[in-house]
Design goal:
eight-stranded mixed beta sheet, 63 helices, 46 strands, about 15% strand, flat
């Protein structure tokens, strides 16, 4: 860079002159061009150059990029933005605004002074500034370091920039592009300017003028033409002109002389800068000053432009270097434009080549290249043109692929919209060499005539009209095989191979229950599977409804019919051959679905696939595994006489096989003939699909090569059997020549092969004759040859094959089908008779392997599973012995455990043993049996079984279970076959062989062995392990078993719920399996339950299998035992409707089974099972075989019992009656009478069952189940259509079952789902209840308990809302009464209006509560349906609450009105006295004021006192009249007892003074009891465990205490006596006496007790009355206000302002007491509200929770005395406990004061509002007295304000009312503050509670105490909700010794828990039984209102067992008995276990 600096003052003028010419140009420049290069320091001098514009740049304001550097000196203008990457520029700047320098600019050198330098953008080159007093703007981030000078505001400089240096120069800096160049003009230096001639030296020529300005006339590559003006004044002496010139790159200078004013200078070099100097010279050599100019010669042009490459959006150009330009810096300027655009684009490049990009495809472009110097000078252009390639097509999409065509499409080429073009497609196959081409105009096409299943590559290019092609775009695809094509048509493309599972098919979705027509082929497979799973023989109907057309509606004439018929060729794409559908489904199904399909097809008598072809691989598979599960029964002729039969797997049954094949085309329908051959003459059936079936004539696409097999199995009846022995018939589809493997295996395995043909060509003859090693006999079957040639060929073939004429069956025109079929049958019979070769399908697998045909069960998983199963089953010889050795836990030990569990519940063998001791012994026995179980190591068989089902491979596990089941079935069949034969033989002589038959019956039962036995053993292993400690190693090894069980359930495997052999549920095992299942599927664990009940062998399992497609065991000897459950998933589309995720199907063993009929408890067993499954189900199917009416009645009796029991425990399942074997179409109508009769029978049975269950005998069937005779009865035809084994399933059967299924789903939609956990809880609780004989009163369920608890919680809220509302209303009403000043008559009217108002309020609250109850039950939340039976109880309780509240409100309103009447009298007297006194005071005041002398206060007082005494003496002070309360009480008592006669009246007549009664303790004596009973009792005390006299004394104590408390509360109220008090008292006594009827007390007892209580009450009420009279005595009342009157008199005399005083007095004397009373009235209510809604509200939400709280507190306190009080004085204990809880809660916190403050604030706010209201409406005429009356009136409904005797009359009329109001407001605020402070200091909570008119402890006691009834045995309190419950119950009972019961002989306290005792036959006696012993089991005879349910578990009563054990001695001493005999197990119960037991019982966490 230049190091020059301009010095101030030097050369500035020259610079100004030089720059002046360029000012205009500089101002027009916008910014520096991009990519300018750095100028070397040697070139950075200010020159005036001639810059010649480029014509092509005239339109561009910027000019070409890469402009050469410009060095300029400038002054003034703003310098615009410097573009990115510009070359360095030297600036000399003064007072300039420098604009933004763009990113990436090259270095700029600046010297500036007082300049404003704008922002330099990011990434600018490094800038160095020397600045002074400059405002330098921000330079963006990322600039390189910046050097700044003094006093500058230097902006931020962007990073990464090249350096910029600024030096101080004056002037603007012009920036010129190539298009704005002009010659640089140089002026002579200052030293050469001519001087004044006068001052010039004489040596200097003075007269030579310089030439004029030099002009550049032309510039070429190697020459320049110059001209100039003539020198001025030299016309006379023409000078010669000397031209010197030199190049910028050469030192030598050349000169020439020009005679004229112009010259031409040649031989210059291109692109050089030349300086020209011209001087005028005269002859004497004197020269003028020089005139100079400089110019650059044009550069030489580039060489020829070459097109190196052309793309769609770019062109690569190159050219040779310009001539003679070496060493001259230059660039190349390229311009280009397309043919369709006028605008030119340009670029600059330094090299000889470039790539022009961003071109548009398919366009003709012209390119021009010029050489350009740094100064912008350009050479002559060199041009060329070229067309860009078209852009390639977009990505190729495969729109569709068919077997012979592919549909392609691609995106349009980019940027080719306006350019004509087409597309060229080339394609070739991977197996063919030739490539084919097509051209298309559009961007899609269909390539046809392709080969199926071949891979093709497709390439597409864009082609222009000139033939130019784009880059190719390619894709590859394989055409569909016929299989793929068909699978796509069927929508199965994603299911191949083998992806459809059995569980998928069994899922229940919308399509399972809808009958929409099949509109497309995609629905066909699922419709087929749906029908097949329901064994519907119409399943093969594969025609879509869309394929059917109504020809009548669209055809008008015969021509149209013919035309349509002709056009309906075989290419209809909406129909499919049934065989194709079958093959496709088998290929897409997994092995287990294939097995199920085979089973169902065989039931429908469809031929099944033997060899399944896969046309995509030309391979076929032997379907051995798929047929493994088929078991058939038949009776060959050899067993016809003995009535025996053969039952075996079809794959292992040896029989001859006859195959039928076709050679070439054949006019005979092979399949149709076979159907006729196999069909009974009376019943034709299509075993094989044939051409005349629906869609049978549709060309087969994938099923050619299929070999089907069918069987003919005889039934043993000569007239019906077509063939006497079983035979297999195979049928090859397609021409045998195309399927050599299939033909080969058939020839190797068949006895005979029938070849159907029409004509046999010579080639076919050779093929058949050359086929060697054909084991089968060959038969030829065809039409009779009609030509000699055909006959000759036939003879030749017969000769070559050595066939006799009998082996050729020909059908001529004269032979009809029947004759031909008969002939064929005869031939087949002959073959069978002479057949020596039989085969099994198992045996065929060896032949298949030899021929390279795969077998389906060869897969690894299947073979591994087969070996695992064989390892177990191969060792089974004797089933009974095997079960004892390998499955020992489920035998005797398990059955013993089951018996003990039932005995624990029923206690039938307890005898006289103490029950708890007996139960403890049973527990020990159970534990011993469990120990014996756990002593067994896992057997070898179970070890293998466990290992196999633990396999991680789900597929292998499923194979294993299948193999196990099939192997076990084989073993069972073999064993059972012999036993059945022997059983049949012995039954012929039943009476002689009775014992043997029973033993055989047992053996048949014991010989049953299935997977359920292995699973049962696992369950027992798990249960035994769970009885061990958690860390025990034996237990740990079985901890994963429940997870396996859950997996099996999810896999669709049935799991045993009830063990049919032991009649028991392994509860722990089932619990943990279902819990694990819940964990695996949550949150999707909602389920609905369907169960089936019915007589054995009536088709229950078959019904379920048909309905749901499941696999409950139905084979011979496999009758269901117990109950099995199976899960079926619900599809998403049905989940929303059913609101469940699974349907759980429970299949049960047959009721009234022959195996159990001989057992004594068989009826009980059936009852138990029926009760369980009915209780678990949402829908119960009752399956009835119509042919057995006796058994039907028996089963209905059992079912009715079950439903009756369920109704009583809160479930009401839907019941569906299925009548089997009713085939008549009119069955439903014809059976209307039968249905009505059935309903009558069911009603009778229900009533009989109700009597047995000790329930309402008028109960009807519809009361206990949802039953509609019209819609809940289904009549189903028989299963088989014909005689098995060749009979198919009856279509009517499957169709009716399907209709039933749809109806069933509709029923389920209205059922409420249950979760798996809830189902489990029902299972446990139902089974426990089932084990008790008295089910209904033994049922306990946590779900029911929770639902009941929830409704109790809600009811208690409603009840409290009701009571709270009415209490508030009553408080308001009483306040209104107290504030009224009406007369007596008006008060009576007021009472009537209040009573009417109360009635409305009560009605409203009652309706609200009932609506809440209804809404709660309608919400269906929280299992509310389970407590539906309690709805009526709660409704009654609401009505009772209303009645009780109404009575209470009426009494209190009446008492309040009567009290107000009395107070009115007092008030009138007081007002009269007040008026007189006020008059006397005013008279005295006037008299005193008339005196001239002022009186002192003492004198005033004396005068007032004198006046007061004189006035009072004259007043009449008659107060309230005193009445005889005792008389009133006695009269009411007499009226109450007037119904009694005799002794009662005599006692009443003798009662002279009631107040003399009740002074001493009431004693119960013999006279209070029935004389006969008393006499008997004294004669024979009977050792009663409880003493009636003691019970009567306890009752007397209780009622006396209650009545005394009632009287005390009334007395504390400070009101007058009212007659209603006595009425309430007598009602209270009557309520208590109702419960003493059993005590045998007489009328004397009632009279004495009432006299005793009424005597005490009369005295107290009399005292209360007298106290009230005293308080309200007029004289006392007047004297009370004497000081106030005196004070007011003195104030009036002194004329003091009384506003403040009276405001304070009004607040203190009137408002404050009223507010206190208001708060006290509401405080009790608030306390109750806080207790019921606060932190501990749960304790008081229900009586059960309350009990839990008490028991927990007692346990924590561990205080014996409290337990005694709880047991013996429950009433008092609860009251005390509640009071203590209130005290605890409110004494140690601010809670109580907060409640009071809240009330203070509320009422104070109302007072202030009342004052403010009157303040706003204040009038001038209003006095303070009137004002206060209005304020009080506003508060009439809130508080009772007494304003009497305030002396307001004495206030000056001039008193300031506004001031009074202010004082009053202030006083009210002070009152609120003082009262709040007062209560905040705390108080004695106990005293506070006793003073409250509404006592919270009493209200809470009433709510929690409930009915107060106690268990008659153990004395636990009733916990039932509501007020009017019919049944008493408690959550947990306790040893009866705690209820003071003892053994009569030993006097020891009883340890028996009554919840245990009531299940036994142990007896009790007491006064209720009149001393007679009575079984606990029938306790309801004496206590029908008590429901004592058994404990939920053995640990449930641990709490009380612990307590009795801990305080045994103390309780014995307290109850005057001997200590109980505590069982040893009780002593091991810890405190923690005791607490845990009540937590579980009360469902507390």
């Amino acid at each position: 860079m230049s190091s020059e600096k301009s010095v101030p003052g030097e050369g500035t003028r020259e610079a100004e002159l030089e720059v002046e010419m360029k000012k205009t140009q500089v101002r027009q420049i916008t910014h520096f061009p991009e990519d300018t290069r750095e100028v070397p320091s040697s070139e950075r001098e200010l020159d005036a150059k001639a810059i010649i514009p480029n014509p092509q740049d005239q339109d561009s304001p910027e000019g070409p990029a890469d402009t050469s550097p410009v060095t300029s000196t400038a002054a003034g203008p703003n310098i615009p933005e410097i573009a990115e990457d510009t070359a360095p520029t030297t600036f000399t700047i003064q007072d300039h605004n420098i604009p933004e320098i763009a990113e990436d600019t090259a270095p700029v050198t600046c010297t500036a002074q007082d300049h404003t330098i704008p922002e330099i953008a990011e990434d600018t080159a490094l800038a160095t500034y020397t600045a002074q007093d400059h405002n330098t703007p921000e330079i963006a981030e990322d600039t390189a370091p910046v050097t700044t000078a003094q006093d500058d505001n230097t902006p931020e400089i962007a990073e990464d920039e090249s350096p910029v240096t600024c030096s101080d120069l004056a002037g603007d800096t012009p920036v010129m592009g190539p298009s704005h160049t002009s010659p640089d003009i140089s002026t002579p230096p200052e030293s050469t300017v001519p001087e004044d001639p006068a001052n010039s030296p004489s040596t200097t020529p003075a007269s030579v003028s310089p030439p004029g300005e030099i002009k550049i006339d032309s510039v070429e590559i190697d020459s320049v033409s110059l001209s100039w003006g003539s020198p001025a004044g030299m016309d006379v002496i023409p000078p010669s002109l000397k031209i010197t010139y030199s190049s910028s790159v050469k030192d030598n200078t050349l000169s020439i002389t020009a005679p004229s004013n112009s010259t031409f200078i040649p031989k210059l070099r291109p692109g050089r800068e030349y300086s020209f100097t011209i001087t005028a010279m005269v002859e004497n050599g004197t020269e003028s000053t020089a005139v100079s100019a400089s110019v650059c010669t044009k550069p030489s042009p580039p060489g020829e432009v070459k097109i190196d490459s052309v793309e769609s959006n770019s062109v690569s150009l190159s050219w040779s270097s310009p001539y003679n330009m070496d060493g001259i810096p230059h660039t190349f300027y390229i311009t280009y434009s397309s043919s369709g655009k006028s605008h030119q684009d340009s670029i600059t490049t330094p090299s000889n080549s470039t790539v022009i990009s961003e071109l548009r495809p398919g366009r003709e472009y012209s390119f021009t290249v010029t050489t350009m110097l740094k100064n912008g000078t350009q050479s002559t252009p060199v041009s060329t043109s070229v067309c860009t390639k078209p852009s390639p097509p977009g990505e190729i999409k495969i729109d569709s692929v068919e077997t012979d065509s592919v549909s392609l499409s691609w995106g349009r080429p980019a940027g080719m919209k306006e350019i004509p073009h087409s597309f060229k497609i080339s394609y070739s196959s991977s197996v063919e060499d030739n490539t084919l081409y097509i051209n298309v105009v559009s961007n899609s096409t269909v390539i046809s005539e392709l080969r199926p299943g071949k891979g093709y590559t497709f390439t597409v290019t864009t082609v222009l009209e000139n033939g130019t092609q784009s880059m190719p775009v390619s894709t590859s695809v394989c055409t569909k095989t016929h299989l793929e094509d068909l699978l796509c048509m069927l929508g199965l493309e994603n299911c191949f191979p083998g992806k459809i599972t059995l569980s998928t098919v069994l899922e229940i979705g919308t399509e399972s229950i809808t009958d929409e027509p099949i509109q497309s082929l995609k629905k066909l497979p699922w419709c087929f599977l749906k029908r097949l799973m329901m064994v519907n023989v119409t399943a093969r109907s594969t025609k879509c409804s869309a394929a059917e057309t109504d020809t009548d509606s669209i055809l008008q004439d015969l021509d149209s019919v013919l035309e349509l018929t002709a056009s309906n060729d075989d290419q209809d794409t909406n129909i499919i051959n049934p065989l194709d559908l079958l093959v496709a489904l088998f290929l897409c199904s997994d092995s287990f679905l294939q097995q199920e399909m085979m089973l169902k097809m065989l039931m429908c008598q469809f031929a099944v696939p033997l060899l399944l072809p896969d046309c995509s691989t030309s391979q076929c598979t032997l379907m051995l595994w798929a047929m493994r599960d088929i078991v058939k029964k038949f009776r060959p002729r050899s067993l016809a006489d003995s009535k025996g039969f053969v039952e075996d797997s079809i794959v292992s049954t040896a029989m001859p096989m006859i195959s039928f094949v076709r050679l070439g085309d054949c006019s005979l329908s092979k399949s149709q003939i076979l159907n006729q051959v196999l069909s009974n003459p009376q019943q034709y059936h299509d075993f094989f699909t044939h051409r005349d079936m629906e869609c049978g004539n549709v060309p087969r696409r994938i099923s050619n090569g299929l070999v089907e097999i069918g069987w003919y199995l005889p039934c043993g009846k000569k007239n019906l059997d077509i063939f006497p022995e079983p035979i297999a018939v195979a049928n090859l589809r397609g021409d045998l020549l195309s399927f050599q493997k299939q033909f080969s295996i058939l020839c190797q395995t068949s006895s005979t092969v029938f070849i159907f043909f029409d004509s046999i060509a010579e080639s076919k003859c050779k093929l058949l004759s050359s086929a060697g090693d054909i084991k089968a006999q060959l038969y030829l079957v065809g039409n009779f040859p009609n030509t000699t040639e055909k006959k000759n060929f036939l003879k030749n073939l017969a000769s070559q094959l050595q066939l006799s004429t009998s082996h050729i069956l020909l059908k001529n025109k004269q032979t009809n089908d029947a004759e031909f079929v008969s002939k064929l049958r005869l031939t087949m019979n002959d073959i069978m008779e002479n057949c020596q070769h039989t085969m099994t399908i198992e045996g065929m697998s060896a032949e298949a392997h030899e021929l390279g045909i795969p077998v389906d069960e060869d897969c690894t998983a299947c073979q591994n599973a087969k070996r695992s199963a064989a390892e177990i089953t191969s060792k089974i010889n004797d089933v009974v012995r095997y079960k004892e050795d390998q499955l020992p836990l489920q035998g005797k030990l398990w059955k013993e455990l089951a018996k003990i569990e039932k005995e624990e519940c029923r206690l039938q063998k307890a005898g006289d043993k103490p029950l708890e001791q007996y139960k403890a012994n049973l527990q020990r026995e159970k534990q011993k049996l469990r120990q014996q179980q756990s002593s067994y190591n896992m057997s070898e068989a179970i070890g293998c079984f466990f290992t196999a089902i633990s396999n991680e491979s789900k597929e292998e596990r499923s194979y294993f279970l299948k193999w196990m089941r099939m192997n076990l079935d084989v073993i069972a069949r073999k064993k059972l076959s012999g036993l059945r034969d022997e059983y049949k033989e012995k039954c012929c002589k039943f009476s002689e062989n009775k014992d043997i038959i029973a033993d055989l019956d047992r053996q048949i039962s014991d010989s049953s062995l299935g997977i359920e036995h292995f699973m049962r053993e696992m369950g027992q292993l798990y249960e035994a392990a769970c009885s061990l400690p958690p860390s025990n190693a034996y237990r740990l090894q079985f901890q994963d078993l429940p997870s396996l069980g859950a997996d099996l359930l999810l896999d669709g495997f049935p799991l045993e719920l009830v063990d049919g052999d032991a009649s028991n549920i392994p509860v722990k095992w089932v619990t943990d399996v279902l819990t694990e299942l819940h964990r695996k599927v949550q949150p999707k664990s909602r389920l609905l339950v369907v169960t089936v009940l019915g007589v054995q062998s009536t088709g229950k399992s078959t019904l379920l299998n048909t309905m749901f497609g499941v696999q409950f065991a139905v084979s011979s000897g496999r009758c269901t035992r117990g109950a099995f459950m199976l899960l079926i998933r619900v599809k998403e589309d049905l989940k929303g409707v059913l609101k469940c995720d699974f349907i759980l199907v429970i299949d049960t063993e047959g009721l009234k089974s022959p195996e159990l009929a001989q057992l004594e408890d068989s009826y009980e067993h059936d009852n138990e099972l029926a009760t369980l499954v009915v209780g678990l189900s949402d829908v119960t199917i009752i399956n009835i075989a119509m042919e057995n009416s006796t058994e039907m009645k028996d089963i209905l009796q059992i079912v009715v019992h079950a439903f009756l029991r369920m109704d009583k425990v809160g479930k009401k399942p839907n019941c569906q009656f299925v009548h089997q074997n009713v085939g008549d179409v009119s069955a439903h109508d014809n059976n209307a009478r039968d249905r009505n009769k059935l309903l009558e029978q069911l009603n009778e049975m229900t009533q009989a069952a109700a009597r047995m269950e000790k329930l309402d005998p008028n109960t009807k069937l519809t009361d206990v189940m949802e039953y509609d005779p019209e819609h809940n009865n289904w009549y189903i035809p028989g299963l088989w259509h014909g005689i098995p084994p060749m009979a198919p399933v009856n279509t009517g059967y499957s169709e009716t079952v399907y209709e039933f299924k749809k109806s069933l789903i509709e029923v389920l939609k209205s059922c409420k789902f249950q979760t798996l956990k809830e189902f489990l809880e029902w299972t446990r609780s139902l089974w426990k209840a089932v084990k008790y004989e008295n089910f209904i009163f033994s049922f306990r369920n946590s779900l029911v308990a929770e639902a009941y608890s929830n409704v109790c919680v809600e009811f208690n809220k409603w009840e409290w809302a009701f009571q709270k509302h009415m209490y508030n209303w009553l408080a308001t009403a009483e306040t209104r009464i107290s504030n009224t000043n009406e007369q007596s008559s008006n008060l009576d009217e007021f009472l009537s209006s209040l009573q009417a108002e109360a009635f409305q309020e009560l009605t409203s609250q009652e309706m609200t509560s009932l609506e809440k109850l209804t809404k709660y039950y309608d919400s269906k939340e929280g299992h509310v349906n389970l407590v539906e039976s309690y709805r009526a109880t709660f409704e009654r309780s609401i009505k009772t609450l209303r009645i009780e509240t109404e009575n209470s409100v009426t009494n209190k309103l009446t008492a309040a009105i009567d009290f107000q009447k009395e107070m009115k009298k007092v008030h009138d007297v007081n007002e009269k006295h007040k008026a007189i006194l006020e008059e006397r005071v005013l008279q005295l005041l006037a008299k005193c004021r008339k005196r001239n002398k002022d009186l002192s206060e003492e004198q005033l007082k004396n005068k007032f006192e004198k006046m007061w005494e004189e006035t009072v003496k004259r007043l009449d002070f008659k107060g309230l009249e005193k009445i005889d309360i005792g008389l009133d009480v006695f009269n009411q008592l007499r009226n109450k007892l007037k119904r009694n006669v005799g002794a009662v009246n005599m006692v009443l007549n003798e009662a002279t003074d009631l107040t003399e009664y009740g002074k001493t303790q009431f004693n119960v004596t013999d006279k209070h009891f029935d004389p006969v009973w008393c006499k008997k009792h004294h004669a024979d005390p009977m050792d009663l465990s409880t003493n009636p006299k003691e019970e009567a004394e306890a009752m007397v104590k209780s009622v006396t205490e209650q009545c005394m408390e009632f009287v005390a509360n009334k007395k504390r109220s400070k009101t007058d006596y009212h007659e209603t008090y006595t009425r309430e008292l007598l009602e209270m006594i009557d309520v208590k006496l109702k419960g003493t009827e059993k005590l045998q007390t007489n009328a004397q007892f009632e009279v004495d007790l009432k006299l005793h209580i009424c005597g005490f009450a009369a005295r107290e009420f009399q005292q209360m009355h007298e106290d009230f009279i005293k308080v309200n005595d007029p004289l006392n009342h007047l004297e009370k206000f004497r000081p106030q009157y005196s004070s007011d008199f003195i104030d009036l005399y002194h004329k003091k302002d009384q506003s403040q005083k009276k405001a304070g007095e009004f607040t203190e004397r009137c408002l404050k007491p009223a507010v206190r009373e208001y708060v006290n009235k509401a405080l009790g209510l608030d306390i109750v509200d806080e207790m019921l809604t606060g932190a501990d509200s749960l304790k008081y939400s229900t009586r059960s929770y309350f009990q839990h709280s008490i028991l927990k507190q007692l346990l924590d306190d561990n205080n014996f005395k409290k337990y005694v009080e709880y047991s013996t004085n429950y009433n008092g204990f609860v009251k005390g406990w509640i009071l203590n809880r209130i005290i605890d809660q409110f004494s140690n916190s601010k809670a109580l004061s907060d409640l009071q403050v809240k009330r203070f604030e509320a009422i104070t706010k109302k007072i202030q509002e009342a004052i403010e209201k009157e303040k706003k409406t204040l009038t001038k005429s209003e006095t303070i007295l009137t004002l206060l009356k209005k304020i009080c009136s506003n508060l009439n409904s809130d508080i009772v304000i007494s304003t009497g005797n305030l002396g307001l009359t004495f206030i000056h009329n001039k008193a300031n009312r506004e001031e009074f109001i202010e004082y009053l407001q202030k006083s009210v605020n002070e009152m609120k503050t003082s009262l709040s402070a007062e209560v905040s200091q705390g108080c004695d909570i106990n005293k506070k509670l006793n003073k409250l008119p509404f006592k919270p402890q009493d209200e809470l006691f009433k709510r929690m105490f409930g009915c107060g009834k106690q268990c008659p045995f153990c004395k636990v309190p009733c916990e039932a909700g509501g007020k009017d419950h019919e049944q008493h119950h408690a959550s947990v009972h306790r040893p009866q010794g705690l209820g003071e019961h003892r053994w009569s002989k030993s006097e020891k306290l009883m340890v028996d828990v009554c919840s245990t005792a009531v299940q036994s036959f142990v007896r009790f006696q007491n006064s209720d039984t009149q001393g007679k012993y009575h079984p606990y089991k029938y306790y309801r005879k004496f206590y029908p209102d008590w429901n004592i349910a058994p404990d939920a578990s053995i640990e449930a009563s641990d709490y009380w067992k612990y307590i009795l054990t801990a305080f045994n001695e103390q309780f014995a001493e307290e109850y005057k008995a001997k200590p109980a005999d505590i069982p040893k197990q009780w002593r091991r119960i810890t405190k923690e276990q005791a607490l845990k037991s009540i937590n579980e019982v009360y469902n507390m966490e």
